[in-house]
């Protein structure tokens, strides 16, 4: 189907938004990012693309074959998965039923030094605007971008947020969770302040980390991809405890934090534990709420990866106990091999919370349109 054919699918009839995908990873075509990147880093980036200094930690299944991507997400011109906005539109919106797509480029966190990471974040923001959010590629108005920012350089990150926060297509800030110290440290306050000033959520996507930032468990580095991936939930748990107990939400009561791809089933026992310790020790930290209430008021999780037990009733109970309708957002993780089809995910949610998780929470959080022009032939997820 050609680009012109796709555009003919749109009509003047308005259709309600029923699925908002909060985790989609666009990738730049070969060499395209260099036109937006500080020239200082272009040579190093070219060498890295040829294999120099490009170690991969804890390979995902079939990484050597498909780079941990869906094999059908690679365009026929030989470019990488999800480099073609029109192909992504067909697979995500027409074929799978997502109505709104939140772009979360991973290129904004690449670099060996803070200076390079900040430069890549700035280049990625320019690239999104020029190659995905422009009228030619976003003619349907269903793509929304993320302001990539280097949390390790808070003042630089805050300036990047200020630069893009007024853009109608940028709906969240995107950072990484690995940098140390934890987010409760006051050094990060410029980032939270800029986000709160503009009423824009701060999302965090898991990353592999590099060198001293490689995620590490309390007993050292992991042996396999299996324990490496599980450890990301522990990383998120520690950041949540820091946000709560170090008073970030007291300093910034309206700050909204989104944990993308860190799983979520662990949050219920963590809330129980935080509340129990807080009650036992007394309010020596001066918090105005129970720790669990900050989670419900200020923190969000995406559905992918869905921890799916053999007994589905266990999943249903967990979702109800943790009040998932208040803290969950649908995500597919396209184009990765772990992609969750919206139709598959929706049927595993308890019906009373399905609408909230699949679209309404995201519409409210990101201030997204609730209706868009109808598309002929679009699959409806549920």
Automatic annotation (TrEMBL):
Keywords: Hydrolase, Lyase. The keyword Lyase applies. It comes from Actinocorallia herbida. Pfam families: Amidohydro_2 (PF04909). This is Putative TIM-barrel fold metal-dependent hydrolase. SUPFAM superfamilies: Metallo-dependent hydrolases. PANTHER family: 2-AMINO-3-CARBOXYLMUCONATE-6-SEMIALDEHYDE DECARBOXYLASE, ISO-OROTATE DECARBOXYLASE (EUROFUNG). One of its GO terms (molecular function) is carboxy-lyase activity. One of its GO terms (cellular component) is cytoplasm. GO terms for biological process: secondary metabolic process.
